[in-house]
Write a structure and sequence with these properties.
This is non-specific serine/threonine protein kinase. Keywords: ATP-binding, Kinase, Nucleotide-binding, Serine/threonine-protein kinase, Signal, Transferase. It catalyses: L-threonyl-[protein] + ATP = O-phospho-L-threonyl-[protein] + ADP + H(+); L-seryl-[protein] + ATP = O-phospho-L-seryl-[protein] + ADP + H(+). By secondary structure, this protein is an alpha+beta fold. The protein has a single domain, classed as Transferase(Phosphotransferase), domain 1 (Orthogonal Bundle), CATH 1.10.510.10. It is 34% helix and 11% strand. It has 5 helices and 7 strands, in the order E-H-E-E-E-E-E-H-E-H-H-H. It has a 3-stranded antiparallel β-sheet with strand order 1-3-4. Strand 3 and strand 4 form a beta hairpin. Helix 1 runs antiparallel to helix 3.
């Protein structure tokens, strides 16, 4: 079940931890994994345990809220759609945040659990890289504004090491990181 939580400091948004400069403290790998798994569990709950199931349609770092213990809770259901559990998708006008929208949803207007899973993958990449889904400053060095395209380029160039947030230094399990990427 989902819960509301009392918070002394208020809700913390995940994206605050994504734009840190080298040397700044941020979430360690253990906390980032907790956020990733918690968000995945939330998405599973929406898709598998709600009737009708809920398609979020705008899963992004800004919609993953963290409590005082950095436990994640999915938020902002303004674009969400209720879908009969027997249906595989809902056809709608495309909505969501650029850089997080699944290509098949963008081209067909058919939103589904799969599109939500694609959207979930972008905050995962943000957690690993410490970068935003869209970063215009990358244009100074390359053509890839979207984080996903940037990561694909690094993978093609066998530069997987360059994808990991430098603020993590070496304080992470490489196999876990590789699995997430």
């Amino acid at each position: 079940t989902w819960r509301l939580w009392p918070s002394k400091t208020g809700i913390v948004f995940l994206f605050i931890f994504i734009d840190l400069k080298p040397g700044d403290s941020g979430l360690d790998w253990s906390a980032r994994k907790r956020v990733a798994f918690g968000a995945a569990q939330g998405l599973e709950y929406l898709h598998e345990h709600c009737d009708p199931k809920i398609i979020h349609r705008d899963l992004k770092a800004a919609n993953i809220l963290l409590d005082d213990n950095f436990e994640p809770v999915l938020g902002d259901f303004g674009l969400a759609k209720l879908v009969d559990s027997k249906l595989t998708h809902v056809t709608t006008q495309v909505r969501g945040t650029m850089g997080h929208i699944a290509p098949e949803y963008l081209s067909t207007g058919k939103s589904s659990e799969k599109a939500d899973v694609f959207g979930y993958g972008i905050p995962l990449l943000e957690l690993v890289t410490g970068q935003h889904a869209i970063d215009l400053s990358r244009l100074e060095e390359e053509e890839d504004v979207l984080l996903l395209d940037h990561i694909k380029k690094l993978l093609r160039e066998n530069r997987l090491d360059d994808t990991v947030d430098r603020n993590l230094k070496t304080n992470y399990d490489w196999k876990e990181m590789e699995t997430v990427i």
